[in-house]
Amino acid sequence: MQQSGRRPDECIITPAVDIVLGETESIARERAEYLNSLVSAEVGVCDISNAIGIDLSQYPLDQRLDDMDITDGARGVLDVVLQGTRAGDLTLRQAGYRYGVNQLTPTLGTPEMVADRLQDMFESRCCDGFVICPSITPGTYMQFVKTVVPELQRRGVYRTDYAGATLRDTLRD
């Protein structure tokens, strides 16, 4: 930020977090396993294509990622996919499946466990907030708002009221 002539506090970091909740950690794991069993490798490849801006359907699904000559598109996203797959020498199909499995960002557990993780990331200044990515819409949002938000509010790390009457007013706050 300083090299660009900006203050470090002008950069806001909000990682995407895919939440899978359960009454116990084992129930959350079972739910995550069930959701992962529904993942289609082909849909994952479409998602990767969308993320990097290149139509990957032109490549055979069984071609190794390292053998693909891709230099255009959102290279950073592709690098994230490749980082997680190089060691396993994965094919495009395998990468599509892995990308589809919680988009490589799973956070699961009880509401208290999820709150612990989010609070730790926030208080350690790892990030400034979060983008909640639902596994199931609108169910994940509803579960998060009903169980995790009150826990974060109880801990004093999530606001309980808003200064403005509208979203615009609140964002100015």
Mean pLDDT: 85
SS field, number of helical segments: 7
Count of the domains = 2
Total beta strands: 3
Q: How much helix is in the residues?
A: 40-55%
Write down the overall geometry: globular
Structural class: mainly alpha
The ordered H/E elements are EHHHHEHEHH
Question: Strand arrangement, largest sheet?
Answer: 2-1-3
Low-confidence stretches: none
Q: Mind summarizing the main beta sheet?
A: 3 strands, parallel
Distance between the termini: 23 Å
Which oligomeric form is depicted?
A: single chain
Rg for CA atoms: 19 Å
Proportion of residues in β-strands:
5-15%
Question: How would you portray this structure in words?
Answer:
There is one protein chain. The protein is mainly alpha-helical and 173 residues long. It folds into 2 domains: 1-24 and 105-173, no CATH class; 40-100, no CATH class. It contains 7 helices and 3 strands, in the order βααααβαβαα. It has helices spanning 25-37, 41-52, 75-83, 92-100, 111-123, 139-154, 167-172, and strands spanning 16-21, 106-109, 131-134. Strands 2-1-3 form a 3-stranded parallel β-sheet, sandwiched between helices. Helix 2 (41-52) crosses helix 4 (92-100) and helix 5 (111-123) packs across helix 6.
Topology overview:
Blueprint: E1 16-21, H1 25-37, H2 41-52, H3 75-83, H4 92-100, E2 106-109, H5 111-123, E3 131-134, H6 139-154, H7 167-172
Helix pairs in contact: 2-4, 5-6
